[in-house]
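Curious: why this fold?
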Amino acid sequence: MSSLELTYPWLLLLLPLPLLVMRFSNAYKTKKTALKVPFFKTLIDTLNEKPSEGASMLKANLWQRTLLVFTWICLVFAMTKPTQLSAPQLREQLGRDVMIVLDLSGSMNEADFVDSEGNKSTRIDAAKHVLQDFSASRQGDRLGLILFADAAFLQTPFTADIAVWQTLLVQSDTGMAGQSTHLGDAVGLAIKVFEQAEQDKSNQQKNREKVVILLTDGNDTGSFVSPIDAAKVAAVKGIRVHVIAMGDPATVGEQALDMQTIDRITQETGGQTFKALDKQQLDQAYQTISELEPQLFNSTSYQITHTLHHYLVIVIVLLYLSAFSLSLLIQKIKTRKTSKHQGEQHV
């Protein structure tokens, strides 16, 4: 609901000023021409009058007085600079840009994750379930999603629409990007997406924090950019990388976890490394990340101000133009009537 405020309310004290002027100042007098006669002294002696200076006072009509009073009130209120405040509006400022980088290699189909009830699920299903809970708690953050295996591709650009992000996450599945693990390319793509988003942001949004949460269950198997080099670039760009290593670190071969490289990535970017051998540990990893990256959601309320003093000035001008035009019209009509009446008498 809008409200009306006066910027200089103390100027309302000027309202009674015309009354003070009328009370303590002399009235304006207009001198008129007089007829000079040689027998003036004889005339005043006969009438027994004392001569004095003569003057006539102009008296305003009722409508003129009303117009003057209304004009003065409008003028004083215009000087107080009245402003109208709009209804409060809410401005929401998003906190962080969080990019989820999810491994879709063939090993993510391993059904070796056990929940608290003893039910087994694949690594990818466990990751999706935990990511849905994690995303639901990130009010104010913009989330993105990168999927990688033989290659990395952007599944979801940064968005504050969590429901859309979750839908696209559910549609992701292993085999969409191949069977191997190009970890360095995935980090490199995340850096590129952050740079593109930085160009599209307004000045007020460019200081938002940038976070990557990387979930993988294997080592890098042939990226164009090594994971450590990509991590160094991310550190320069101010991007923090947290890595969640899924699966058994004792695994050997292509699916073995390269914990040395993973630790180096997080050390270079200021992130942390988490090991998740089951769903409980995966839940705990995302809870810890939520504590490390608390919400930065901020909302501010503001009101738009509209000044109204110019409308009062316009009203005053229009009133005086209307009054002047009406006065001229009445005077012209009276002149015509007088001329017509004199013409009839002459006839």
Remarks:
- The chain has ten helices and 15 strands.
- The radius of gyration is 43 Å.
- The longest strand covers residues 96-103.
